Amino acid sequence: MPIDRAGLAEFLRRRRGSLQPEDVGLPRGQRRRTSGLRREEVATLCHISADYYSRLERERGPHPSEQMIASIAQGLHLSHDERDHLFRLAGHQPPTRGPAGEHISPGLLRIFDRLADTPAEIVTELGETLRQNRLGLALTGDLTRFTGPARSIGYRWFTDPACRARYHPDDHPLHSRVFAAGLRRVVTVRGPGSWAAHLQNLLLEQNEEFRAVWGEHEIGVRYAHVKRFVHPEVGALELTCQALLDPDQGHSLLVYTAAPGSESYEKLRLLAVIGDQEITVPTS
């Protein structure tokens, strides 16, 4: 499928012009004359260079890869139909839709972009973190950096001891039961040839604790009202986790809050300061 450079450039320009900074979680700032987003802002949202993005809008540059187009589609908050159109303009077949996909719906992203004062993340049905906000990073560290099976927190829970360090040790047995029961549900829904079934087989081969918990055949095990974290700098936190589900994609927006006036509430405020310092301190 050949690339339609003119169509691609026109679509990108129009989509950029239709978005305002507040639509994508960016500050508007003063003396703003641009109608829509600036090219530099789009490039930042898409995690690409401003020069590369500018060349696409000018019908120049190399043929963008599927990974690049997926990043642009997400950065521009495209719907699934718009994303598929963008892929075809770039000369690629659109990715398969459904729960295995990683394209986050614009509606879920709009909510996520407005959550600045409390930890939040967007995860797949297998616990693969797709997005974290600033406070989410401060609370649990960067969970988007993992690749392969380790992208799933359930897989990491049974194979990487470091995964358990930020959760209260008294709750570890419950976490194990929740992850095993959740994986069983997804395997049942998605079938024996799914990625979930592959994770199941890997864990059965690699981990004795998983084999024991899996053998209990539990379904529907859930957390209590409060989840307890242990942060290396602020210590113990008790946070309520609320989940908003996108039924079309199987993605969940997880939001962690603390009761106002509580010790955990004050620690979240301290985490916000720590996170800002980590972001702004220059690296050599």
Question: What would you say this structure looks like, in words?
Answer:
Helix 2 packs across helix 4 (66-75). The longest helix has 19 residues, at 172-190. With 284 residues, the chain is α+β, with helices and mostly antiparallel strands. The protein folds into 2 domains: 5-89, 434 Repressor (Amino-terminal Domain); 106-280, Beta-Lactamase, CATH 3.30.450. The protein has a 5-stranded antiparallel β-sheet. It has 12 helices and 5 strands. Mean pLDDT is 90; it is low at 279-284.
Helices, strands, pairings?
Blueprint: H1 5-18, H2 39-46, H3 50-57, H4 66-75, H5 80-89, H6 106-113, E1 120-123, E2 129-132, H7 134-140, H8 153-159, H9 172-190, H10 195-206, H11 208-214, E3 226-231, E4 235-246, E5 251-257, H12 263-280
Helix pairs in contact: 2-3, 2-4, 4-5, 7-12, 8-9, 9-10, 9-11, 10-11
